[in-house]
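hiii so my PI (J.) wants the whole complex modelled not just the main chain, which honestly fair. so below is everything: two entries, each one labled with what it is. i double checked the lines twice but i was tired so who knows lol
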Amino acid sequence: MPDQDNGDVRIFNVETSFQKLARRPGGVPRDSAVEKARAKVDELKPGFDDWLGKQINALVGIIDKAKDGNPASDWIDIANQRSRQLRDVGTTMDFELLTFIADSLCDIFDAVEAGSELSMESIACHVDALVLIQQKPYRGLKPEQVPELTSGLRRVSEQVSTSPG
Amino acid sequence: MATPTINLRDQVVLVADSSSYLSMIIHGMLRGFGTNKVLEVRNSMDVLQALSAQKIDILLCDARLPPHGGLKLTHAIRRKIDNENRMMPILLMSSDTRERSVKQARDAGANMVIAKPISPTSLYDRLAWIALTPRQFVDAPTYFGPDRRFKIEGYPGGVGRRKGDNITAVAAESGPAMAQDDIDNLFSAARSGKD
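here's the output for the full assembly
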């Protein structure tokens, strides 16, 4: 494609080093690359429980302090960050339910940060659900396998999202 | 049809995310793809420092990277005239996949948005797409970055071609989260004049 110059707008061809190097022979074919990447992720799974436990305990600690009326000034932001971290890795580590619950909790924190009324009960029931899904009967479950739990959390989250501050 | 193959060996990949655990997962996936040079940083300042210190071949950046977010960082990288990494591919990682947010990422100059949580397949396909699909650059008063009038013809080699490819209809402006396929399609929407 030729370069174009239309007054203030210039359109030009670019071949980045990434593109050049990626086209070299000797790369890993897609199927093999994906399989190897999955194997690398699997190697991390034995340590996931430990990380998950620490993340959820930290979240519980933040929420407990808030419930006791002694929160850090930026507790919502910190709790939201921790919830996002849980959400962002859950499905990758075969914990789809973790991603679902953490996503719903993030929606609550986002809504509160945007001005919705703070509902400690809504937050607490999400944190309780996070604690619950670490236990064996819930491990590896998908959201659609626990419809009462997921619909309840979603309903709570939506109420917070629509409540005026 | 042959599956796409990309060679990531000796490519310097910069992963920017505040979560060390997520970075470790992405790092592991990249290793599986054959990458042997992965750098990790936790904030925008460290991204800029890494870019000034060495050549980076591709940036994988969280859309909420502290302190100001990956979109602002992308915009800053694209607008900085004396930056040798100005045209480096940027793959934004985001859990916010509402249409408005994806459009903002595109308009900031991101090459592509990948939805979190990330799978190996999703990551490989987007890297292959960036690597094997030629895109022109646009230098305009209000935008510098990959041509947003980007037509998606399916993944290189036909792998991962989606049923909805080339369909440009998009959801409501502030609608629900979009699936990865819809995000990909949004990058093609401008070509037909619908965006």
